[in-house]
Amino acid sequence: MKVTTIVGARPQFVKAAPVSRALAARGVAEALVHTGQHYDPQLSDVFFEQLKLRQPDHHLGVGSAAHGAQTGRMLEAIESVLTAGRPDWVLVYGDTNSTLAGALAAVKLGIPIAHVEAGLRSFNRAMPEEINRVVADHLSALLLCPTEAAVRNLAAEGITRGVHLVGDVMYDSVLYNTRLAEQAPSPLKAMGLAERGYYLATLHRPANTDDPARLSRLMAMLGGLDAPVVLPLHPRTARALATAEIAVSPGQLRATPPASYLDMLTLERHARGIITDSGGVQKEAYFFGVPCITLRAETEWVETVEAGWNTLVDCDAERFRAAVDEVARWTGDAAPFGKGATSRRDLYGDGHAAEAIVEILLDTSRH
Questions:
Q1: What tens digit of pLDDT does each residue of 43-75 get?
Q2: Which end of the chain is more exposed for a tag (fewer CB within 10 A), N or C?
Q3: What pTM did the predictor assign?
Q4: Over the stretch 187-222, which tens digit does the pLDDT of each residue have?
């Protein structure tokens, strides 16, 4: 069996690493294709080094562009790779333009698609990611779901064939990489931070960065907290701030270059609270038992909200302040936002999702 894996963005490198290790352990040949969607070294190259992910077999170098142009360039380049390699499966992850292009290229060539992180829905079609994940799901032969809610979402759309609940490969990755992070120099010391004495913030989604008025409000909200707020700046966010001439509020806000993945894990693990618009960071906060405040009106990871570990505030300053106050009062393992929720549960599997995915691929190929 031959597998071609399509990745292109930082979260996909995190998700692909444990699956690549599981494929290698079972002797499955894998060709790794990096579209180049994320090309900043801290968002790309360093991940292959830190996550012990082998270098891509194909680096397409697509880079940044408008959605249509970027997806079109990816589609053309991926099609050439697949035509030459003719894999038995194309493996795509998540909801990026790389996911969409990989799925479209594969289905046009009659190559079956396995979608890792299938079935997630924000139910907000204004999000480019929502369109990408819906299309990828409806094109896929294997839908590898991280949660029971994802399975239910697919069933509601009439998709039941090829659906498997495998758990979340990001949980696999966090368990593996936290051990590596513990062996690396701690970023807290370099930044003069105390454990539980700071907030960690990430901000990158177009809905938050592309509207200057909204971005300005969010920066003011972050800058008004009473403890240091570490904000590793995504390149998109840095460009948006510069273009709109929005100054990073001096206050407690500390804007930094993008953090390496291992540094991010350490910063997440020891934060008082995490403030983000990232789906992956919401989950990592849950894995570490750190309260999360999400700067969106909805989330694909509804379990984190239902369990009381995540609260959605969108861009509402009053809701944000109330959530921060709840985090400040939080003292233990009880869910800071939950009514009746007392502790975290294993919502995302047992840490062996990658092995389950490879077993399903092999079993499906045999039949």
A1: 556 666 777 777 899 999 887 778 888 899 999
A2: C
A3: 0.90
A4: 999 999 999 999 999 999 999 999 999 999 999 999
* CA distance to 291, 310, 331, 339, per residue, from 334 (Å): 10, 12, 8, 10
181-189 average pLDDT score = 93
- Distance separating alpha carbons of residues 254 and 272, to the nearest angstrom: 15
CATH architecture under which domain 183-329 falls: 3-Layer(aba) Sandwich (3.40)
Backbone φ and ψ of 145, nearest 5°: -95, 140
CATH architecture label of 2-168+349-366 = 3-Layer(aba) Sandwich (3.40)
pLDDT at 110: 98
Given 38, 58, 204, 234, the catalytic residue:
204
Predicted confidence at residue 101, as pLDDT, reads: 96
Provide the mean pLDDT of the chain: 92
Are 78 and 97 in contact by the 8 Å Cβ rule? The answer is no
H-helix segments, 157-292? 169-183, 187-191, 206-209, 212-223, 235-243, 261-269, 279-288
Question: What are the extents of the domains in the chain?
Answer: 2-168+349-366, 183-329
Query: pLDDT tens-digit profile of 99-151?
Result: 999 999 999 999 999 999 999 999 999 889 999 999 999 999 999 999 999 99
Residue type, 320: F
The number of residues in the chain equals 367
Instruction: Decide whether 2-168+349-366 matches 183-329 in CATH topology.
Output: yes
Please name which of 143, 76, 133 lies closest in space to residue 109, comparing C-alpha atoms: 76
The residue type of 254 is R
* 38 labelled catalytic: no
| Residue 367 tokens, joined | 């039949």
3 state SS for 167-204: CCHHHHHHHHHHHHHHHCCCHHHHHCCCCCCCEEECCC
Rg (C-alpha) for the chain, rounded Å, is 20
Dist CA 311 CA 291 (whole Å): 8
Beta carbons of 319 and 313 less than 8 angstroms apart: yes
CB 7 within 8 A of CB 91: no
| Chain-centre distance for alpha carbon 309 | 17
Q: How would you list the strands of the sheet with 199-201, edge to edge?
A: 253-256, 229-232, 199-201, 273-276, 292-294, 310-312
